[in-house]
Amino acid sequence: MPTAVPAREEPQAPDRERLKNKESPGLNGRGSRPRGYVCSRHWHVYSQKPAKVSQAAWEKLSPHTRKQHRLAIEDLVNTPHDLLALDLAAAATRLIHRAAKMRKWKASTIVSKFATTHGALMHPPLYTDQPHPISLKESPEWTSAYGRWHQIISSEVPNPPPHVVKTQIDDAARHLQDDPEARLFLQMMWSFAARPGVIGGLRPTDVTLQTPTAVSYPVGLTHRRGKATHFRGPYPVASHLSRQDGSCVAHQMAQRTSEQSLFRPPAAAKKKARAALKRVNPALELASIRKGAVHHLARAGAPEAEIMRLTGHTSLTTLRRYLNYSQQPTREAIPAQDSASTLLHDPTPLATNDQCGTR
Fold it and tell me: Which InterPro entries match (predicted)?
């Protein structure tokens, strides 16, 4: 009776042999945990969506996020030899610090890289043959380093692009007079204090046109796509457009199906709006529009709650950062400042004790 010929074992790479050596424990103590083998040097990274992952789970993350996650995992897979004796979280921390030093990253970029690496290791089945999530927050070194960089960001003086003023928006709109769609994109960013990705993601079903007044067009939007919707879900905002821009919105809605973008393609309208801003002031960016709208509302005395309702902010700290903290006080901050002026004098002199020193 014939006997089965044992399969020939493929030679292993030197690094793999080195990791199995007791003298070189490798990442995370020879790469073992109660729930499985997690040494990143042994992972297989998929070049595209693996068959084991559902389409819904794959599409939950944007293509940009998936790309950044894969890059972070590839960095861990290629961990250099001098970090193999560390656990996975410590090695990931040092990899980020090395890249930051070499590429001269700012603190905000380092924090972003920490968040990306943590997110990648919470979704390893999307990119690798590792079946379980790995929480780097279990590591004191990781959480301490991450928290320290957050502290540095909080203490830094921000240096964002300058915010726009209304006259600059009007000048940019005049440059786009021959391109109604790009002009509408610009004006909607200003009127709704919105990010470009939010306006670019609008569909006709997200827009509600109300009865126009003599000078303006009340418009309601439902933000279903964009940065804020990832963690808070869809939310409504309301503002006014000019009669001209409101009519342009109505025309755009009539030309699109319910599944099409209101701006087609959004990237082209975004590019043209940015170019118009640059013609007014080369230092301006699309981000300048949202910040400028927030400053404009604060100067006009709009309450903080109403500004946050329009911007979608859920934290007053974020709103204050948009206003450069004390540089642009809000309606609520002005009376608080006036009340603080009482510290310059004594409104109620201390009562004298006539019995002091007497019996």
Answer: DNA_brk_join_enz (IPR011010), Integrase-like_cat_sf (IPR013762), Integrase_catalytic (IPR002104)
Average pLDDT for runs of 10 along the chain of length 359: 44 46 47 52 88 90 92 92 87 95 92 95 91 88 93 78 93 94 95 92 93 91 82 86 93 90 91 96 94 93 91 85 80 82 72 52
Six-digit token string for 293:
């709208």
Is 105 found in the same domain as 206? no
Tell which residue, 194, 196, 197, 220, has the closest CA to residue 207.
220
The total number of structural domains in the chain stands at: 2
Same domain, 149 and 196: no
Cα 12 from Cα 14, distance rounded (Å): 6
Q: Is 195 contained in some domain?
A: yes
Give the Cα-Cα-Cα angle 157, 160, 161 (nearest 5 degrees): 145
**Distant-in-sequence, close-in-space partners of 314: CB < 8 Å, separation ≥ 6:** 232, 308
In order of 190, 281, 310, 313, 328, the CA distances from 300 in angstroms are 15, 24, 15, 19, 11
Give the domain range for residue 116: 40-154
Q: How many other CB atoms sit within 10 Å of the CB of residue 218?
A: 15
The CATH number of the domain where 210 resides is what?
1.10.443.10
- Written as six digits, the tokens of 63 are 């293509």
In a domain, 176, yes or no: yes
How far is residue 329's CA from residue 84's CA, in Å, rounded to a whole number? 52
Q: Which two tokens stand for residue 198?
A: 């939010």
21 domain-assigned: no
| Contact call for residues 52 and 125 (beta carbons, < 8 A) | yes
**Peptide bond connecting 162 to the previous residue in cis, omega within 30 degrees of 0:** no
Which residue, among 294, 302, 301, has the nearest Cα to 323 in the 3D structure? Answer: 294
Both 59 and 171 in a single domain?
A: no
